[in-house]
Amino acid sequence: MLYAILCYDSEDVVTSWTKEEDAAVMEKLDVVQQKLTREGKLGPVARLMPTTTAMTLRKGKEPVVLDGPFAETKEQLLGFFIVDCQSFEEALDAAKELGRASSSMGAYEVRPLMVWKPGGVQS
Amino acid sequence: MSELAFIDVAMRAARPRAVGALLRYFRDLDLAEEAFQEACLSALKNWPKNGPPRDPAAWLIFVGRNAALDVVRRRKRQTDLPDEEAISDLDNAESALVDQLDEADYRDDILRLLFVCCHPELPAVQQIALALRIVCGLSVKQIARAFLVTEAAMEQRITRAKARIAASDAQYEIPGAPERSQRLAAVASVIYLMFNEGYAATGGEAQVREALCDEGVRLARLLLRLFPGEPELMGLLALMLLQHARSPARLRADGSIVLLEDQDRSLWKREPIAEGLSLLDKAMRHRARGPYQVQAAIAALHARAGHASETDWTQIELLYRALEQLAPSPVVSLNRAVAVEKVSGPEVALALIEPLAEPLSSYFYFHGMRGALLQRVGRVAEARAAFDRAIGLANTAAEAAHIRMQLDKLQAASAPAAAPRAEATATTK
Q1: How many domains does chain B divide into?
Q2: Partner-chain contact A16 B9, CB within 8 Å
Q3: B195 and B242 belong to one structural domain
Q4: Residues of A in contact with B59 (CB under 8 A)
């Protein structure tokens, strides 16, 4: 079984870390990631850019694009895609296409990645 | 991270929200600040024992408000201190406030706090110092170091700035839409000034002043989170990130300046560049041009060029042209001339900057650039005069050293063998 582990934290706090504090946290996490890799358990790892870089696509007949991250509490995170695009425009187009293909309402948040390690797990 | 370091970061992160809300209650900067300090002292006592609260800002606001109410009461009635238990019902602190404070309150609180610090009547240095002290929570000592003045002098400036704000009629009502956008613009410009104070630093000062850049970026991020649909805020943050990314390549070990075209671009920080480019990309979708976006677009073209020779100067020249229209200033025109020189040669650039001689007569960069252009067209004597003028106007030792280097090059080029040619060119002019 594959599991996703999603990170939630206060952005105010995390962006207040000094470079050294940030590096120290990443280093500690890296130790665990190395162990998981040795055990053949680690898939892709990503760190997202700050929410200030995010855009949200509200699905629907006429999809609406908004600045900022997804902020509703009535909907839950159900999955994600990683796409390789040249610009926001292209990534939003991909999101719109996905939106047309799914019949439900809901939204996609589109946010650039800061760190990407593809990992080696095959299901 | 140790527990104390964690508490410190949590308090720092909560500070703008907490002080902003306390300012809304008390309409007095000193009292708001004092209340926040009191709340932090309580936090240092309580959080290690009970664990940090889920919403540190709400906790600090609640406890700070009680502490300040107590101060107000004491001042009024000169009564004795009430029992600690009576004023700080810490268990209910969060639940009581969580319902009352929503994002909209926070938004105007923080904007108000920033705007009060950026009061238009204050000189720029005082605006920046006050924002660093009150919003960012830097100590007076840290700010004094960043501005290269004594702690006592900085303390005095901050006190004076606060007194001036207290005497003026600062706006405490919820602002309307046009006012809000005016406030945003004023605050954005002070944030950029703060950043530039740090960015302009050279030599041994660069390290201590880098805090100004970091705080500028932090404040711009905070503001953009509150106003996520403002393309100029995206532009401002992008601009600062793209410029700041170059910092590891900007100075030599001896503290002297490395010009953009000579920088080792492999040293540029990739994360802020990626973030800056994303923000700019996002901003451009609004099709609402503004000075920060244009400047960020220029910085982005530099960031995208793997080598100085790959720089798209034609595009940069066009962007400076756009900037001249959006925010006309002789300094912008001078920068356009840099791009013009790359595209059309030094003669055209020289003609372009001649009319700037008067408005920029005491501007270091004008004379430095004019000297370099004159040198390139072979007007050596005039170039030397321009460089001499620049040295006299240098703001830092590194700037002066850079011009001295140019003069040395000039000297070497006009050494006996080369002199006749150079002199001849100079006199034919």
Answers
A1: 5
A2: yes
A3: no
A4: none
The CA distance from B29 to the nearest CA of chain A, in Å, is 23
Min Cα separation B18/chain A (Å): 13
Q: What residues of chain A lie within 8 A of the CB of B222, using their CB?
A: 12
**Which tens digit of pLDDT belongs to each residue from A34-78?**
999 999 999 999 999 999 999 999 998 889 999 999 988 889 999
Question: Are B204 and B237 contained in the same domain?
Answer: no
- Helix (H) or strand (E) holding B63, with range, is helix B56-77
> Do B252 and B197 reside in the same domain of the chain?
no
Say what the pLDDT of residue A10 is.
87
CA distance A119 to chain B (A): 21
| Cβ B276 vs Cβ B241: under 8 Å | yes
Write down the ipTM of this complex: 0.89
| pLDDT of the residue at B99 | 46
pLDDT in tens, B314-355: 999 999 999 999 999 999 999 999 999 999 999 999 999 999
Q: Whole-prediction pTM value? A: 0.86
Among B101, B123, B152, where does a domain finish? B101
What is residue B91's predicted lDDT score, i.e. its pLDDT?
47
Helix axes B346-353, B364-376, angle to 10 degrees: 150
How far CA A17 is from CA of B6, B11, B314, in Å, comes to 9, 12, 40
User: Structural domain boundaries of chain A?
Assistant: 11-117
- In a shared domain, residues B351 and B269: no
Q: Do A52 and B12 touch (CB under 8 A)?
A: no
| Domain assignment of residue B284, given as a range | 229-306
For residue B104, count CB atoms less than 10 angstroms from its CB and return exposed for 0-12, middle for 13-18, buried for 19 or more.
Answer: exposed
Question: How does strand A113-117 pair with strand A45-48?
Answer: antiparallel
Residues B290 and B322 in one domain: no
| B217 and B109 together in one domain | yes
A16:B218 CB<8 A: yes
CA–CA dist A111, A51 (Å, integer): 7
- B88-120 pLDDT, tens digit each: 444 455 545 544 555 667 788 888 899 888 888
At A47 the pLDDT is 96
At the topology level, CATH places domain A11-117 in Alpha-Beta Plaits (3.30.70)
Cα A117 off chain centre by: 13
| Residue numbers in A near B229 (CB within 8 A) | 66-68
B184 and B106 share a domain?
Answer: yes
Spatial CA neighbour of A6 closest among A33, A45, A58, A39: A45
B262 and B218 in one domain?
no
Residues in A touching B1 (Cβ below 8 Å): 21, 24-25
Q: Do A49 and B274 touch (CB under 8 A)?
A: yes
Q: Per the CB < 8 Å rule, is A50 touching B1?
A: no
Q: What does DSSP assign to residue B29?
A: H
Residue B5 has a pLDDT of 80
- Write out chain B residues lying below 8 Å of A116, CB-based: none
